[in-house]
Structures are given as C-alpha cells and as structure tokens.
Amino acid sequence: MARLARALALARILAFAPALLSATAGAQSLERLHVRNFTLTTDRASVREGETLHLTISAHFDEEVLELDNVTLPDLTGFESDGDERRCSASARGTDCVEILTLNATQAGVHTLGPVTLDAIDARSGRASRFSTNSVVVTVEGASGLSAIARSLIAGGLIGIACAALWWGFVRRRRPVVSPPPTPAPAPPVTVAPAAVVAPDPASHYRELVAALEREPSRARALAVRAELRLHAGARAEETLGDLEARGALRGRPEALSALRAIERAAFCEDANVERAVREALPFLTT
Q1: Distances (CA, A) of 204 to 222, 234, 286
Q2: Residue 193's CB: how many other CB atoms inside 10 A?
Q3: Cis upstream peptide for 176 (omega within 30°)
C-alpha cells in the first residue's frame, strides 16, 4: 500500500510538471520594467469610410528597452491595417517607445479601440503583470448614402439641362432671330484692401495653456503645455529632453529647461500622481 501511494503521488507530480515548466518559462521571457507611462491616442476622432487614421501607442520605461515586445493590440473590427512604424529612443531618463498603426476605416459606426495590453515583470513588485492603456473612440461616417444622393442630384441636373436644351431649340426654330441689345460696358472693379492679419502672440498662447492647466490639472493639459515648450525649444519629434540638453538647445535658458523638466514629470507620472505633479510644476511654468 505504501508503494502504491508513493507511485500515485509521483504520477500526479509528473502530470503537472509540463504546466509548471511552461508557466515558469513564460515568466522568465518577460522583461523586468518600471512602466511609467502607457497610453493610446489617435490623430482623428471622426473619419469617413475609406479614409485613414493613425493609432499611436506611447510608453515610457525607466530601463533601456530596444523594442516594444509582448504587446497585444485591441480588436480592430471595422478597420484594416495598412502597416505600422515602431521606434524606441533611450536617454538618461529611460526609454520612450512609440508604435504608430495606420488604419483604413471600412465599416461605419462608433468604434471603441483599446485597451492595448503589455505583459512584463513589474519591477516594483517583482510579479508578472499586465499593463493596459486607455481606450479611444472613433466615429466612422458612411460614404454610401452621400454618394447615392450626389448621383441622384447629378442625374436630375443632367435631365433638366437636356430638357432645357430641347425647349430652347424648339423655340428658336419658331421665332425669328432678334439681335440682342448692346451690352453695357462693365463697371470698373472695386479694389478692397485686404484686412491686416494679426499674428498670434506665442507668449499669450502659452499663458492660456498654463492657466488652463492650473484650472484643470490633468495629463492632457500637461501634454499640451509640454508640446508648446518643446515647440519654443525647437525640439524635433523624436528628441527627448535628454537629447535637447545634449545638443545644447536650451543653453543659456535655465528657466525653459526647468519648466520642461517639471512638465515632463507631470506628463508621464502615474495617474494617481498627475494632479500633485502638476501643482509642483506650476511655479516653474509661470516664472
């Protein structure tokens, strides 16, 4: 009986061994990451059937990452993928990864895309975790109904023109040709001076963005202020703050450098810390 019990216990261990080995191997293949930002955005919230839009996945990690792996895309029903573009850029602050998907709208309706998920070892807890982005809503307007209306209008217009031409030819054959009265000379054109175009004041626009951020300390407002500061600093799309400092783009402008550092923390911190980070950044933005 003792030998039988030991044999049964060994059989149970051997039965579960493949599953345990598979789970262990899967966990070991995941990267150990501090995920500071993981978001999903789109460049167009409304399109027509047949038009394209770009879906952007953005992530920031404390560690150096060569490629955005172990990412699962959402259900893209109603769209066809026309390819994607991936890039990761590392700096002293960590790594910024971006993946841009080009989608072609194929089905009318209101579509919710997301969330995108990322499987990694959470460096804070040491556990295998699944990180998720936000979702975005895209409205696809149908093009078939508009085309049918346009075709009907064009067909009706052509029929009307044909009927008018037949009537005009019939009347002309029955009536004598009468010379038209002389056409009066056209009046000289009136020249109107163009209205003066007032260029927008960049400083006023920046103050408006900061004031809006102060009223609503959200990540979206912080990203808008960050984009304006990067524009004034002459930053290229792929450049990080570390790249700007390395090439001396902010040399001699310590206030702009401090403002960019402060808003970077507010733009890419965890959701629970956004409001506090914005409050801490505001003194650097209003000096």
Answers
A1: 17, 18, 12
A2: 5
A3: no
DSSP 229-243: HHHHHT--TT--HHH
Determine what percent of the chain falls in helix, strand and coil, rounding each to the nearest 5.
45, 25, 30
Which of 53, 30, 1 lies closest to 121, judged by CA?
Answer: 30
- Kindly report, as residue ranges, where domains of CATH 2.60.120.570 are found in the chain: 32-141
DSSP 197: P
Q: 79: which 2 tokens?
A: 């769209």
Distance of alpha carbon 223 from alpha carbon 213, whole angstroms? 10
Q: Are 67 and 84 in contact (CB under 8 A)?
A: no
pTM across the whole model: 0.45
Compute the C-alpha angle 31/89/60, nearest 5°.
Answer: 55
Residue 116 DSSP code: -
Exposure of 108 by Cβ count < 10 A (0-12 exposed, 13-18 middle, 19+ buried)? middle
CA dihedral over 225, 231, 233, 238, signed as positive or negative: positive
| Stated length of the chain | 287
Residue 282 has pLDDT above 80, yes or no: yes
Q: Torsion angle, CA of 33/84/58/233, rounded to 10 degrees?
A: 120
- Counting beta carbons within 10 angstroms of the beta carbon of residue 40, is it exposed (0 to 12), middle (13 to 18) or buried (19 or more)? buried
Strand-pair partners of 103: 53, 81
Task: Report pLDDT digits (tens) over 8-62.
Answer: 455 554 555 444 444 444 555 899 999 999 999 999 999 999 999 999 999 999 9
Could you please state the CATH topology (level 3) that the domain comprising 32-141 is classified under. Jelly Rolls (2.60.120)
- Rounded CA-CA distance 121/131 in Å is 10
